[in-house]
Write a structure and sequence with these properties.
By secondary structure, this protein is α/β, with parallel strands linked by helices. The chain has eleven helices and 14 strands. It starts with a strand and ends with a helix. Its EC number is 2.7.1.134.
Amino acid sequence: MSGGRVGFCLSDKKRKRMNLDAFAVFCEGHGVDVVQIDLTRPLVHQGPFDVIVHKLSDVIVEAEQDSQSQQLLANFQSYVSAHPATVLLDPLPAMTRLLDRFASYRIMSELRESLRDWSICSPPYLEIHRASEPPSIQQAMMTQGVSFPLICKTRVAHGSLSHEMSLIFSGGGLEDIRPPCVLQSFVNHGAVLHKVFVVGDRHFCVERPSLKNFPSGACDRKTIFFNSHEVSKPESNSDLTALDGQTASRAPPSSEAVAALVGELRVQLGMALFGVDLIISIHTHTLTVIDINIFPGYEGVPQFFSSLLSHIESVLDQRQAGGGPSAATTGL
């Protein structure tokens, strides 16, 4: 394989978090040239690019309200349209879909049938589009099989607000929700979260702290507001993750089941860089998908640099062999 030119279009925060400078040095040793893309400058003067790796979540979300972000996104899309041979990791429509929890939870629900043999499921959920009275919400919950306690999450799955969640125990707590949002049945899972990080045809599973168990009859509890990012940090030490004298089950999820899930999601999403949040029910031992994440942080994945470069090289190989952007972009 000959070397290629790869543009990275990331926010300053994302660049620092993944240590793009160090990754560029790593790639240089393998004949791959990494270029940092500045969205405020014409891309045609920064190219050409064989591959563009990006996380335009900020821009996509802000473009709904901000004209400057709309222009930046339009400029990026115009460049991509004018250069169809450039492979995009990942496709903008796929990324945009995962920014909407309504859409991503529908994907999770649709996967249940194809993954039933692996005992993989997702919790019942309810989309709340607009402000409604608690009795009507509870009626809709019954229809959808959503039960207390439940987790309330914002519809937009990006930005600091997307990590602000609440754990609601009763009908009275529904006064605390702010539509549009998703209500998802809470599954007791022993305070252990399994984060799966996907890089093309490779994936890695990392254990993190998570919310402790709550009894289903705790209807007298007040709503608990929390930041999911803070709760599930590797070094998290929160009262919300302490198991009240119980011992957490540390059995990892079945590697075969996780591989089946990742394979199915890669096809359904058409993406190569994403993460999946998994929990294991303490009652049914079912592997439960609670969220899908765009281009996550990959913290705790020591092989991230080599895995990402390996996927980029496979994309470049397919591109040079005439495989086309669509085949390479999916990482299949």
